[in-house]
Structure formats: structure tokens, C-alpha cells
Amino acid sequence: MTGLLVATLSTALAVWLWTGPEPAELRLHRLTARKGDPWRHSLRRLLTRPSPARRAQAWRRASIELCQALSAELSAGRTPGEALTRAVSAVDLPDPEALRPVLAAARDGGDVSRALVSAAPAQGGEGLVRLAACWDIGVSAGAGLAAVVERVGSALRTAQAHRQDVAAQLAGPRATARMLAALPALGLLMGAALGMRPLGFLLGGVPGLLCLTSGIALDVGGLWWTHRMAVRATES
User: Fold this and answer.
1) Residue 46 confidence (pLDDT) above 50
2) Residues 12-25: pLDDT tens digits?
3) Which DSSP state fits 97?
4) Lowest CB count within 10 Å: 3, 7, 82, 228, which one?
5) pLDDT tens-digit readout, 89-141
6) Which helix (H) or strand (E) holds 18?
7) 70-98: b or e for each residue (b if 16 or more CB lie within 10 Å)?
8) What are φ and ψ of residue 161, in 5° steps?
9) How many CA atoms lie within 13 A of 82 on its CB side?
10) Where is the Type II secretion system protein GspF domain (predicted)?
């Protein structure tokens, strides 16, 4: 029974690592958040670090808020540099330090457009890239910057709504993938209940160990592949 418990826990751990919900991370954060313990603090930071997909979503939401705030500041009659500075300070950014060069360029009369492109993350930074293009059009060509930024913000909101709709439609397939990933452990439990002793074969020799290793690898690989397809569908 000890081997059966280990196999069940290994499968459950694999499912949690690849598709575990965010509340589990928050509970782990509360359990490990203890002052004066550097080891626990480092472990908490490592395990609660946002995934690339969640970080990209945070940057997309921040880009939409930035466009809205910038358009409002420009409509209030502020200069582009002042409007951008106030808009950045009013938005909850995933990484405020990333836009410090942008603020410096806006304050000192530098190349704001290039600073925005450089600050844009590889995933989720398309809003900042579009805002950089707006800045070139509005400041360099003399077009109405507020109207252009408002249109970009509207386009970003439409794209975000589409991604949310796709994510909602993928909730069912993701739940099915999690259920299928747990079926091997359920099969081991059923076999043990019927007296077939499946772990005697899996842990009793080289063929069984090969089957166990291959099964776990395929199970984890299937979860990873399903997760990647869902992420790509959401980002498309």
C-alpha cells in the first residue's frame, strides 16, 4: 500500500504542477509567509511566481488601463509628456520598474516611442508596441494623439474580450484533461481493491519499472501539451 500511495501522490503532484489553480498558490503563500525566515521567503517567491501566461494577461490589462488613462489626460489638455507620466503613475503595472525609461524619456524629451518598444515584454507587450506607434503618429506627424490612443485602447479591449471568451470555452477541455490525468491512479486503486496487486508488477522488476516510468512520462507530457495548446489558443 505504501507504493500505491506514492504512485497516487506522484500523479496528483504532476496534475497540480501543470494545471493547479491559483488559490492553491495563494494558500501556499500564506503557509510559507513567515517573517525572519529567508529560506521560507525564497521558497514562497519561487513557488508563487506568476506563470508567463498570467504575467502576459497582467500586462495586457495594464496596457488597456494605460491607454484609457492616457486618453483621459490628453483630453484634459495636458501635454503628451505630462499626460503619459500621470497615466503611468495611475496604472497598476505588473513591473513598474520596466517603464522607468519611458518616464525618463517623456520627462527629458527623449524617444518615448523607442522606450515603449524596449519596455514591452515578449508576451503581453503588444499594447505597449501599439502605443509606441500611436506616439509616433500623434507627436511626430502632428495627428490627434488622444483620438488615436482611444482607438488603440478600444481595439485592445476587443482583443481581451475575445481571449476571455476563448478561455471560457476551453474550461471544459481543461477539466477533461485533468480528469483523464487522474485515471491511471484510479486504475491502480481499483486493481489493488480487486486483489490484482498491480504495484507488484510495476515495482517488482525492470519491465514494470519501465511501464511505470513511461506511464508517468506520458501522463505529464499529455498535461503539458494540453496546457500549451490552451495557452496558444487563448493568445491567438
Assistant:
1) no
2) 554 444 444 444 44
3) G
4) 228
5) 889 888 888 899 999 998 888 888 899 999 999 888 899 999 998 888 877 66
6) helix 2-19
7) bbbbbeeebebbebbbebbeebebbeeeb
8) -65, -35
9) 7
10) 67-190
Q: Which amino acid is at 62?
A: A
**DSSP SS3 for 194:** coil
Pair 32, 40: CB distance under 8 Å: yes
Q: Distance from CA of residue 6 to its chain's centroid?
A: 30
pLDDT tier for residue 63 given thresholds of 50, 70 and 90: very high
Task: Give the residue ranges of DSSP H helices in 33-99.
Answer: 38-47, 52-75, 80-90
Amino acid at the residue 138: G
What length is written for the chain?
236
Q: Does residue 233 register a pLDDT over 60?
A: yes
CA angle 44, 49, 51 (to 5 degrees): 150
Which spans in the chain are helix H?
Answer: 2-19, 22-32, 38-47, 52-75, 80-90, 100-108, 112-119, 126-135, 145-169, 171-193, 198-202, 206-235
207 vs 219: CA distance, rounded Å? 18
Distance set, CA 207 to CA 3, 53, 120, 183, 187 (Å): 16, 39, 51, 21, 19
C-alpha cell of residue 141: 506627424
